[in-house]
Prior knowledge:
- The protein has eight helices and six strands.
- With about 325 residues, it is of the alpha+beta class.
- Among the domains are: about 1-175, Alkaline Phosphatase, subunit A, CATH 3.40.720.10; about 180-215, no CATH class.
- Helix 1 runs parallel beside helix 5.
Amino acid sequence: MASISSIPLEHQIDNWIGSKAVEFINRYSDDKPFFLWVGFAGPHDPYNPPREIADQLKDLVVPESIPATDESNAFRDSFIKSHLEGSAQTDFSEFTKETKDKIRRHYAGLINIIDQQVGDILKVLDTIPSNRETVVIFTSDHGDFLGDFDFVGKALFHQPSIRIPLIVSGGSFPVKESDSLVALTDLYSSILSLAGLENSVSQDSYKLPELSQDGKRKSLLGSTGAGVMLLKDHWKLCKYKNGVRTLHNIMEDPLEQNNIYHNPDFKNFYNELEEILMFEVLQSVIDGHSEKTYPYMTMTPDHPGHQPGWIRPYPNNIWSDKYEGIDGWGKSGMPS
Length: 336
């Protein structure tokens, strides 16, 4: 972990991905708009930049890691075991500051490689004729603990794991910072909107606030194999399958050091979040099985699903349109 890659800088995977994106833009001659997804593999464990990049950052002063808590320590044994037995083959039972700092410097090195490639992509986009406006979205699929709470990787709902960059440039987007609550799934509706289309499929995708007058996303459900999370405004409620429960005000406690789940003074906040969390979990379970349900003839006698040879389009909710709401199968209102 935090080693040196034997692959030369010019042959690093993220350099190759960036160069292929530049090639695509350079050879694109169609008058129609294009959609290009550039999926960089890094930065990622095992945090192994090539030698020349690591040497450039060997004296870099990195931020201190966030201290572990009683709640995060409940996950330490499983974290250590998974990295000993998995492909990492690394023992994190003694996670020293020296190791954390080295991981952070190497992570910065991997980001440096991507920064160079993003710069090359933006340069070639500048060569596109002025009548072709391009929107650029820069984001990531997840964060990384990098030693925070004595972890690396992700899977838990602490801020270093779930909070990611989202930079949008071009189009009608104003030059400003936003504290709106958004999710990666919101890019689906937002990109469709930029193309003049509407989202008719995904219920868990909202237009970015700058593209819609419908208001901000009110809450966000998170789910992994470890548990579930509900984020609303600056309140975060987490419930893990190992029994750990946390409630944090991430505005007042951004490092998540003070778990107020059991504090009776915050019972009202907990009850509100709990109600929304249970609604979202139940709704996601129902929605997740919607493609398996069948239109009962006694309830929907004129549904095409009763005819021989009918093939269900996918994705498709058989209770949509005029059948939505029958017998409780339709989408109901979320608690405010």
